Amino acid sequence: MIQKIKIIKILIIIFSLNLAFSANAQTVEEIIKGRKAMFSENYQNAKKISILLKSKRIEEAKPLMKKISDNYIKLLDYFPENTKEGFKTEALPSIWENKDEFNALMKKASDDMIKLAKAIDTAEDVRVVQKELMWSNCSACHSRFRAPH
Ligand code: HEC
Ligand 1: which of 88, 142, 143, 149 to mutate, judged by most atoms within 8 Å of the beta carbon? Predict the structure, then answer.
């Protein structure tokens, strides 16, 4: 009898552990779609920043720069080994062959958005700093790590 109760207890523990894990683990589909959604959001915000800076609305542009910077940091966790293909991903295998370099580019892109938020206060030409600290990072990464589209 005691033996049986023990077995039932163990089964309950295993079952609840299982539930806890499956609640946390994102599926491959969720991860790939999740990173695409974050890149798209960054693109939308980057375009908004351009428009705001053109009309000298610097203070309104700053929170969007922070948002892009934060997204880049989150994106570091969105390229696990099991998400190399499927769900129309444009991620190239070179990402996983050069993971350190890819992550370094992502971190640089994130840091540069924070630098941009400071640089625009004193910049003579906002378009130049924006190109240097924002747009150039998109193409630097895409040219090596994203499939032509
Ligand atoms: C460090 C690398 C890196 C940087 C920096 C980067 N991207 Fe990307 N981007 C990628 C990768 C990799 C993909 C492909 C993701 C996928 O399809 O799984 C991508 C995909 C995208 C997509 C397509 C999303 C979709 O719905 O399929 C857009 C739009 C995009 N990036 C815009 C930008 C813009 C704009 C910037 C700069 C402001 C930027 N990216 C900076 C690596 C980067």
Answer: 142
